[in-house]
Amino acid sequence: MGEGESARILVTGSSQGIGKAIVMRLASRQHFVLAVSRSKLEYLDTSRYPWADRVAWTSLDLSNATAVEQYAASLENTSIRALILSAVDYGDGARHGASTISTPEWQRVIGTNLVGQSILVSRLLSKLVPTGLGLIVNVSSDVAVTPATGRAAYGASKAGLHAMLRAVEAEHRADGLRVYQLIPTFQTVTEGIRRRRPADFDFSSYAEPALIAEVLERIIATPGQVTGGTYLIRRDGTLQPYDEVASL
Length: 248
Ligand SMILES: NC(=O)c1ccc[n+]([C@@H]2O[C@H](COP(=O)([O-])OP(=O)(O)OC[C@H]3O[C@@H](n4cnc5c(N)ncnc54)[C@H](OP(=O)(O)O)[C@@H]3O)[C@@H](O)[C@H]2O)c1
Fold this sequence. Notes:
The protein has one domain: Rossmann fold. 37% of the residues lie in helices and 17% in strands. It contains 7 helices and 8 strands; from the N terminus they run αβαββαβαβαβααββ. α5 links the parallel β5 and β6 (178-184). The termini are far apart. NADP nicotinamide-adenine-dinucleotide phosphate is lined by residues 13-19, 37-39, 60-63, 86-89, 112, 139, 141, 158, 184, 187-188, 190-193.
């Protein structure tokens, strides 16, 4: 394994759902992973998963900007080649109109999904850019580019992060930094989504988080095959370029 390949891949949202599937997939394929979330990872059992010792977990609350700054500073001597953003605060309870979103909900959702992850991106750029091999993958959402009815805070946070990363991509395209924004065209059964559905909800049409983890691992394992940009993930795991408006 070359020096570049032993550099760490940092994954947010690692304790459950899509982020957990990504950590499991990457670590089981020889990658070294730095995982962050508020709750401890329950799946790091080396007797069950021999690859678990390739994962180093740190407790981090992304809604706490000071803690995010401190965490980024703690990585000063760590080599990082990829940043995967999968953390999300979906907001309070079931869908509710914008007029009913409380100030704490706005602050938590935007603070976690947008501000916390943006600080992480901006502080780690100095590690990702100079190698010319760095990449950022945002597990984005249809709500970043379409109206998020009943989920205005979630939609605003995802659209904000999407725009932030488009700016980063444009600023560093010439430096070789690749930024991927992946928009699933299907729903995935995750703990976060389960909490937002009725107890008797039929999830049979939903995909497993492992599908997105497979797509992501393919991008990381075969650099250069998929150029940076925004992609729709189809249900069969294929990627379809999404045409962004580049200028008006
Ligand atoms: N599931 C879907 O159908 C679907 C569809 C389209 C897009 N997506 C996108 O996929 C990504 C993952 O979604 P998911 O459904 O897997 O979510 P999920 O099951 O709710 O998991 C969210 C993760 O984010 C972490 N998190 C939440 N608040 C945090 C905070 N304040 N600080 C640090 N970490 C925090 C959670 O860890 P802790 O609670 O331990 O901190 C958890 O690991 C999201 O970006 C979402 O927009 C999902």
